[in-house]
Amino acid sequence: MLSKPPATPTSARYPYALVLCVIVPAILLAAGILYGSAAQQRASTQAALQQKAEQLAGEVDAEVDRSVAALKVLAMSSTLQRGDLRGFHELASRTVRADPAWNNVQLVSITGEQLVNVRLPYGTPLPPLNRPELALQAVYRREPVVADVMLGVVAQRMLTPIYVPVFRDKEVAYVIVAAIEPPNWQSMLRSRIPSGMQAVLLDRYSFVITSTYDVAPAGEPGAAKAWTPPTTPGELSGDLNRNGRIEVAQRKAAFSGWTVVTIMPENEHSAPQRWLLLATASLLLLVCGLAVGLGFADRARRSRGSSTA
């Protein structure tokens, strides 16, 4: 009578099961470590963005305050104090040429009428102001007023005007206006942000003053490769978060009321997450391939064993 062959241990019949029991938990552990690392990096990125937004907001206000201080010096000039408008036009023209941050200097009456504009020769008939109520605010409040981005009537470009009242005998006699162009704000932001980070400066109504983005004109190669926020001065910003596709932090400047938004583009902050998914998927495919291979090898071994018997 034929005796039964000795029973094959389960570990010998299913070696791939042991492989799965060892490797799969190791993969899950590695995935958990990678995910934790990615989450930590994202939190670190958010903290860096917030810190930079707060720093830039302070520097924007410092630049506005510098312009206000310079306008107050002009307000105390002897030519203006004695009402010499032609002399003030010459003085303000020299000041604009010496200060690259200013696009223009204007002198406005307490009723909102434009009296001097250094972009035009003295005596030229001057057009009405775009928003005369801002000059009147400076008169009634007796303090500087920082405007939002607007179109300059003479320059025909987007500008950010700053209004400073001129006092004579303790009464407001005029309002001086200095206009700063968005490219000046852009240069300031670009010089202060690290590589890989972007920034957008918004006015009080969420219209774009400037940004650090370089947007390729429509039709150029690569113009539509990646999403970028609204970057044209005077454009409404909308939702810069874009449903989480980018990391965003923001800070409102106390003096100007403008908001600095710092941004880490998707390709910068999501690289660890993509690498995590790729690594996990690769490991799972490797384990599945190894298990299938061992399964076929075990079946072939048992098939040869039964044929020999």
Structure explained in plain terms:
The chain has 309 residues and is of the alpha+beta class. Among the domains are: 41-60 and 183-213 and 228-269, Beta-Lactamase (2-Layer Sandwich); 62-180, Beta-Lactamase, CATH 3.30.450. Helices cover 47% and strands 19% of the residues. The chain has eight helices and ten strands. Strands 1, 2, 3, 4, 5 and 6 form a six-stranded antiparallel β-sheet that branches. Strands 8-7-10-9 form a four-stranded antiparallel β-sheet. Helix 2 packs antiparallel against helix 8. The protein is rod-shaped, with a radius of gyration of 34 Å. Mean pLDDT is 79; it is low at 216-227.
Shape: rod-shaped
Percent of residues in helices comes to 40-55%
User: What is the helix/strand order?
Assistant: HHHHEEHEEEEHEEEEHH
Reported for the largest beta sheet, the result is:
6 strands, antiparallel
CATH fold topology of the domain at 62-180: Beta-Lactamase
- Give average pLDDT, whole number: 79
From the helix content, strand content and strand pairing, which structural class follows?
alpha+beta
Low-confidence stretches: 216-227
**Percentage of β-strand residues:** 15-25%
CATH top level of the domain at 62-180 is Alpha Beta
Instruction: Count the beta strands.
Output: 10
What is the CA–CA distance across the termini? 15 Å
Q: What is the rounded Rg? A: 34 Å
CATH architecture of the domain at 62-180: 2-Layer Sandwich
